[in-house]
Amino acid sequence: MASASLLKSSPVLDKSDWVKGQNLRQPSVSHVRCLPTSPSALTVRASSYADELVKTAKTVASPGRGILAMDESNATCGKRLASIGLENTEANRQAYRTLLVSAPGLGQYISGAILFEETLYQSTTDGKKMVDVLVEQNIVPGIKVDKGLVPLPGSNNESWCQGLDGLASRTAAYYQQGARFAKWRTVVSIPNGPSALAVKEAAWGLARYAAISQDNGLVPIVEPEILLDGEHGIDRTFEVAQKVWAEVFYYLAENNVFFEGILLKPSMVTPGAECKDKATPAQVADYTLKLLQRRIPPAVPGIMFLSGGQSEVEATLNLNAMNQAPNPWHVSFSYARALQNTCLKTWGGRPENVKAAQETLLIRAKANSLAQLGKYTGEGESDEAKKGMFVKGYVY
Amino acid sequence: MSCYKGKYHDELIANATYIGTPGKGILAADESTGTIGKRLSSINVENNEENRRALRELLFTTPGALECLSGIILFEETLYQKTAAGKPFVEVMKEGGTLPGIKVDKGTVELAGTNGETTTQGLDGLAQRCQKYYEAGARFAKWRAVLKIGANEPSQLAINENANGLARYAIICQENGLVPIVEPEILVDGSHDINKCADVTERVLAACYKALNDHHVLLEGTLLKPNMVTPGSDAPKVSPEVVAEHTVRALLRTMPAAVPAVVFLSGGQSEEEATVNLNAMNKLKGKKPWSLTFSFGRALQQSTLKAWAGKEENVKKAQDALLTRCKANSEATLGTYKGDANLAEGAAESLHVKDYKY
């Protein structure tokens, strides 16, 4: 897989596979809306990056692979480091991220890595650019572009996601630095309603972010996380999820987002964390696949689930259950805690533990790779891996 | 409740899935009395009940045709009609493994303040009518919304109004046991190119699915009857492969995998054109998580009508013509049509009528 060329190639402007004999429009005309009064004037999706977006999305959504989410903000990364007794310094963050990106052979199971801005511009402890290490590993670099959640006025104590201001120039700069996909995480809370306002804002923000990202060459990962918090049962989650995804896709369409060049990062459909009834992986798979079949246009190439506080093993089992039959889209993972937990604990901040820690990372990555192919058997999993990671009221 | 879960839940899913059985499709024989009158007058036949009955008997009793047809859409009058020997048409269909369907809309009316755009009527008393039709043997329904492409059309008003009407109709049908065929026809009239049609189709279908979802319609128990994505009637033609690519792409972008089948309308294409385009779609490589089949009116009946010309002695010839088209379209759903169907008189004739009023 020649992913080195992914970074070097300039925007491609030739015939798409779909439109025989008709060229895409020139890059200087990125949005063709003739007049405000002619709403059905021909619109161009994703302008000059269309082919590259499709290629990137397909590469990330390749069989047997998924995403390593390592885009914890400095504050959140601080919590991770604190849990193993380390101070939240740039050096420690650099050391930890170096450990992750340099795990040998990681690219066999990981197709993309989401970075925080600091990491995108950082070098490893050996002085190589993080981005270059990833590309050499056959892993596409991605970048978190949202600016976090803040209270949503007029709502029921809910939040909305910031980050649209200056997003065009930021995404353009990230592209220059080597990023090829972006991520924006907004949340919806079932115990708080969710209110129609919160759902609409979440969906609209995602749609605007997605359109801007595509315009600047980054495949947007669309992430409306329905938080695990709450006592509600799986049917309620299902109901809310169907509403949220209907809004998301409607607004994506209104913003002329190019579906062949996006990825989704949904939460699985499960009972709330405090619900007395638990669901089996088969049930989670059943509900989640039904949601996908009812709401996700088949043009979307990949669905990369978040783990949202599930244990490492739970997240893998659920993913495996969803891949027991062919799906119209690649169904895979974009896990942070569910890939990193045991690795972090094994490292404990000590250089002599780096190799062992990297091995545990590879074990989890391989398990999820097998789950993506529907072949995970769960043999030999450690107790640490089975520990739930749900944190009530979790602030990312 | 996220979507319909009532007593007809499983039956709706089973029937919708059955209609999309590979090798089968729908014969749209639901011309209103006025419209069938135009057909009959084109072959110099008087528009009376007996002639309408005779024509429909000819169609439904064609030996071998029902094997290619998972459903037939009827006009209300026909639902209660019988063969000359006294057997109800719905019985004939049932025995042949064909589901009877019923047109339930009451035609279009203009939307004030638009440039001749329309909405579709028929929601009043629809629940009771659906119940009655179910009792009479119908198992699916059809409602045709119409949109057109122009400088400022379709307007957001027309899109919203028609999408909402389709969604209301759909949930009422499901509550009464009928699988709703959702038909947002974008007329082929105009000189626009295929990209314009694709853009409008995607916009309209996105609005339709949003409305269906908002109205809690059970997608697994519905069918979509869209136009194929083609250049306008006054624009240069393109190959069937190009039609296929644009059409499938539009559906991939808008239609969730939960919907079991697409039953295309022919919208004025000639019999042969409609078949060849459907065939190209089924030959296309790539993702297609739903069945792609036909729901043709004119494109199944044209040669049959001409061959019959209202004469008893022509019935066999007319039935042969219908069987030929049924088999051709059946093959098209499998992507195996070779284009060698015995082209009867009229098979290659365009059936486009400008600004067609149904």
From TrEMBL, chain A:
Metabolic or biological pathway: Carbohydrate degradation; glycolysis; D-glyceraldehyde 3-phosphate and glycerone phosphate from D-glucose: step 4/4
Q: Which InterPro entries match?
A: Aldolase_I_AS, Aldolase_TIM, FBA_I
**Where does the record say this protein resides?**
Plastid, Chloroplast
Q: Name one GO molecular function term.
A: fructose-bisphosphate aldolase activity
* The entry's keywords: Chloroplast, Glycolysis, Lyase, Plastid, Schiff base
Q: Name one GO biological process term.
A: glycolytic process
What is catalysed by this protein? beta-D-fructose 1,6-bisphosphate = D-glyceraldehyde 3-phosphate + dihydroxyacetone phosphate
Pfam families tied to this protein: Glycolytic
**Gene3D superfamilies associated with the record:** Aldolase class I (3.20.20.70)
Q: Which GO terms describe its cellular component?
A: chloroplast
Protein's recorded name = Fructose-bisphosphate aldolase
Q: From which source organism is this entry?
A: Rhamnella rubrinervis
Automatic annotation (TrEMBL), chain B:
In the record, what terms sit under GO molecular function? fructose-bisphosphate aldolase activity
Instruction: Indicate where this protein resides in the cell.
Output: Cytoplasm
Q: Does the keyword DNA-binding apply?
A: no
The UniProt entry lists the main location of this chain as cytoplasm
Give the record's GO CC terms.
Answer: cytoplasm
Associated pathway: Carbohydrate degradation; glycolysis; D-glyceraldehyde 3-phosphate and glycerone phosphate from D-glucose: step 4/4
- Alphabetical UniProt keywords: Cytoplasm, Glycolysis, Lyase, Schiff base
Q: Does the keyword Isomerase apply?
A: no
Question: What EC number(s) is this enzyme filed under?
Answer: 4.1.2.13
Catalytic reaction equation(s): beta-D-fructose 1,6-bisphosphate = D-glyceraldehyde 3-phosphate + dihydroxyacetone phosphate
BP GO terms, sorted: glycolytic process
Under PANTHER family, the record lists:
FRUCTOSE-BISPHOSPHATE ALDOLASE
As for family, the record states: Belongs to the class I fructose-bisphosphate aldolase family.
Query: Which named protein is this?
Result: Fructose-bisphosphate aldolase
Please give the organism. Rhamnella rubrinervis
Q: Lineage from the top down?
A: Eukaryota, Viridiplantae, Streptophyta, Embryophyta, Tracheophyta
